[in-house]
């Protein structure tokens, strides 16, 4: 039976629940396991698939077959993508091969969850970053069933989720596409933020984008659209305090701050992310919609990428150059000095996340004095 500090060490990958023959494992609101001891038969199948208990010993340098900077030739696709529009084309190709795609969408309450589908319209909903830990629910079971029928499945997720799926699904029909991960936000924090947005707008949310490109790919926005026809958008370099706190590491889950699925431990066929710093390497690619860095990690990844390269403008780039410009590929984000005190503020039932994100997103000397007066740094 898995038995460790789930808040500190659990990757919330759901592999343990998939492996449990008696359905003894469920999850709390942050996808931390809850074990029903009355149902547990101590078969230890959960321990065999747990990516924390079976983690690689060392994080070594990432070895890549090829590295690319790419941007989709279709600007409409890039507008709704986080960066260069790579995922959609690979997903579309897999569907053309009579396959399925497993990726992250928002549920009806705008909480991220993974879903398996062979419909292109559902795959469109998988586009774009969510930044909140997604629920894999029963996707691993579905993927197993599909590959056993001889069909291809493309799984897209962060590296720890890829590791979990590959731990449970042993098949050459599985193609994995990992997304460079900065870390993820606890689900209860996002749920509370959504509730505050609806309360302030006096209307229900109908659409969310965490990477709106109205002001370009570098100053991306968090955009909410409401049923009453209004919208609220904040930009990371201006008043986007929620996004700023996330990128500054204040929202990081404890597990993410010591994540070991980095570098050589990324067990994926392809790895994609923002092409940070590439304006110096290939300035001709620089525009307001952004481009993607693609690292090909396996021959299977190379094969599927070759199938879709006609949709992109592509430049071969030294993979080490890509890694140097995006350290989250090989290292987790460092812990923010104020992360613990920030977390304590948000744990209070009457905490206003909008208020505290603004306070902590402006780490001036004056604000730090205010935090001390308010009891924030303790």
UniProtKB/TrEMBL annotation:
Pfam families: Fer4_7 (PF12838), FrhB_FdhB_C (PF04432). It comes from the Bacteria. Transmembrane segments: none annotated. Residues 1-30, 31-61 form the 4Fe-4S ferredoxin-type domain. InterPro entries: 4Fe4S_Fe-S-bd, 4Fe4S_Fe_S_CS, FrhB_FdhB_C, Polyferredoxin-like_ET. Keywords: Iron, Iron-sulfur, Metal-binding. This is Coenzyme F420 hydrogenase/dehydrogenase, beta subunit C-terminal domain. It comes from Blautia caccae.
